[in-house]
Amino acid sequence: MGYPIIETIDLRKSFGDNEVLKGINVKIMPNEVVVIIGASGSGKSTFLRCLNRLNEPDDGDIRFEGYSILGKDVDIDLIRSQMTMVFQNFNLFMHLTAKRNVSLPLRQVKKMSKKDANDAAMAALEKVGLVDKANAYPGQLSGGQQQRVAIARALAMEPKAILFDEPTSALDPELIGEVLDVMKKLANISGMTMIVVTHEMGFARDVADRVLFMDGGVILEEGPPEDMFVKPKYERTRTFLKRVLAEVDAMDPLKPKYDVPESIDGIAVSKDDNR
Amino acid sequence: MVRSSFIVRNQELIKKLILVVVILIAFAFALDQPLNSKYVNLFTQAAWTTIKISIYAILIGFVIGIVIGLGRISRNFLINGTATVYVEILRGTPLIIQIFFVYFGLPSLGILIDPFSAATLALGLNSGAYQAEIIRGGVQSIPKGQMEAARSSGMSYLQAMRHIILPQGLRLSIPPMTNEYVTVIKDSSLAYTIGVVELTYVSNRLITIYYEPFTTLIFTALIYFTLTTFTSNIMRFVERKARIPGYMESD
């Protein structure tokens, strides 16, 4: 299968006295979709943000295509342009149109001509289905649309991997679907290497090649989604999954909130009964 | 079509300007002795000098404001320290001392400047400290995510500042900047202390010659008022033009 595209070795990070990452060892292969799950505070977002050094790790090593990216002489801007990121709060540039949001990094980082950058931006917007919103400002877009523009911005750089930091957590429930659809397309059709921190278990089940469960700053358990969701090894994993899946159930409008008995004292209960 | 819509959109501004001009003309006629046509001409020249001092000082202050303002945000100890010391000194000492220092003090170091340049320079250096704080405030109120998003797509710190943070931060700076620019116009009156022939100087001279302080001072004040009102209206126009569609809209 070749060499991992991203590899971390005993990665550690503390905020003050609080050790958030306690030695993370992960190998991510090209074209792999890895979903990281875990309770809040388990360090999954910090781990993701360490990968492109938005947070500086304290110890350990990160290798991108085999080379360490932690040295002082590393051109981190170049690495970041090949490992772009999608944020929980979209973080679109508020003063620029959707198209300029996508094309500005192309012009600044890749030094593309105005025309090339615009063409690439429109192509990326087309992939997320927002060509008609190219000239809209972020403030004029819905949350779901903003996140799709953010994905287009990350995609247009033609990165070797994209990091997703809870991409649907800030969205209204009815807008989550459109973002997940774009991400599914990205994984299945483009074969993009993706590392996704999310609470969307449906997405993890359908798209992930591998699920990592983080707990207390370490990766407690990992495996293909069918194994993780059906027969988790650890009690912690089981509790977490049970809780998250219960929440998903509770949000399902079609599922009754309590069990309706079929009959009471021999009289059949029907839903339309208005007595 | 474009022209008429401009007038329609700026009705308020035009009304104010007409009002001010009418008041000025009324006063000019009311003051027979010291303000005959010759002295009105003198006032026009003096007002022009005041305008020039103010505009140059505002521009000098803006350039300094961006450099020092970004210095105040820098994590580099030396840059941050220099910027902080600059702001504290210029903000913590009287402007008139600074003007005197540039005009009377610097010649001791062999630097001789004419009164106009000295006043403009001192005012610009002083305003730079205030504009730096305004720009710092504007830049720091841009959410951290904007910088992170720019950096995560491979842009350098300076690229992100230049293309993402400053354009947004400067927009937020417009209302406090209006305040600062009006202050600069009013503070330019201190230039009279080193002999710059600007509004306050001319006004003072006419008072000593003709002893008509009441009317002369009101007339002088009205010219300043016209300049400051005009400035704040221009800034309001700039603010409207710079507004980001769909973002921070409150009206």
Describe this structure in words.
The complex is a heterodimer of chains A (275) and B (251). With 275 residues, chain A is an alpha/beta fold. Helix content of chain A is 37%, strand content 23%. In chain A, a hairpin with a 2-residue loop joins strand 4 (59-64) and strand 5 (67-68). Chain A is globular. The termini of chain A are far apart. Chain B has 10 helices and no strands. Chain B is flat. Chain B is 80% helix and 0% strand. In chain B, helix 7 runs antiparallel to helix 8 (157-187). The longest helix of chain B is centred in the N-terminal third of the chain and has 37 residues, at 37-73.
Number of H- or I-type helical stretches of chain A: 9
Summing up helix and strand content along with how strands pair, one would put the structural category of chain A as alpha/beta
Coarse morphology of chain B: flat
Largest sheet of chain A: 6 strands, mixed
* Gyration radius of chain B, rounded: 21 Å
First and last CA, distance of chain B? 25 Å
Q: Which whole number gives the mean pLDDT of chain A?
A: 89
Order of helices and strands of chain A: EEEHEEHEHHHEHEHEEHHEE
| Count of β-strands of chain A | 12
- Number of continuous helical runs of chain B: 10
Give the uncertain stretches of chain B in residue-range form.
Answer: none
What is the tally of beta strands of chain B? 0
Q: What is the rounded distance between the termini of chain A?
A: 66 Å
**What proportion of the residues of chain A is helical, as a percent range?**
25-40%
Rounded to the nearest angstrom, the radius of gyration of chain A is 21 Å
